[in-house]
Amino acid sequence: MTPQIQAQAQALVVQLRDHLEAELAIHRRLLASAEDKLQRLVAHDIPAFTAALAREQPLVAEMNRLRQVRDRLLRAIATVFSIRPDQFTLSAVIARLSEPLREALAVRQRELRSVLERLRNANDRNLLLVRSGLALVKDILQAVVGSDALPTADGYDRRGLHGAGNAPAGRLVNLAG
Prior knowledge:
This protein has helices spanning about 5-40, 45-80, 90-95, 100-145. The chain has about 180 residues and is mostly helical. The chain has a single domain (about 5-145), classed as Methane Monooxygenase Hydroxylase, Chain G, domain 1, CATH 1.20.58. Helix 1 (about 5-40) packs parallel to helix 4. The longest helix has about 45 residues, at about 100-145.
């Protein structure tokens, strides 16, 4: 690698290190929001839960923006280090770095992985509470109104459609027909 390319790679890696720090900060804020939403759900404070969801939307938008920037940075670094597209991961980039930057990025990667794992767990708990609450409402409605009066299709799907059944199941094209 020529000195000019090494300097370019060094600058990109420093940008990536700083960028991962920004991503970590956003994910920590999202984790705090998820934990706050959990408390609101447990307390059955739906207006506060709805407000927390609204406050979270700018964080989610920023997270998506930062993810796109990170992907561009990683692609640039992968090009400089000649990493094949099928081996294009943060770990592959870290493996090719010299020691001071390697450890700094590895630490951020571990921190990011830990925060993301905790965020996923918090969101899973929130989802479980929401689903349990909705199932309870459905059971109460069936007891009050009678099971024949309620539609047999499960409530709303993730697209907000009621009674749509199992449409594409998240795929762009439904292969089942």
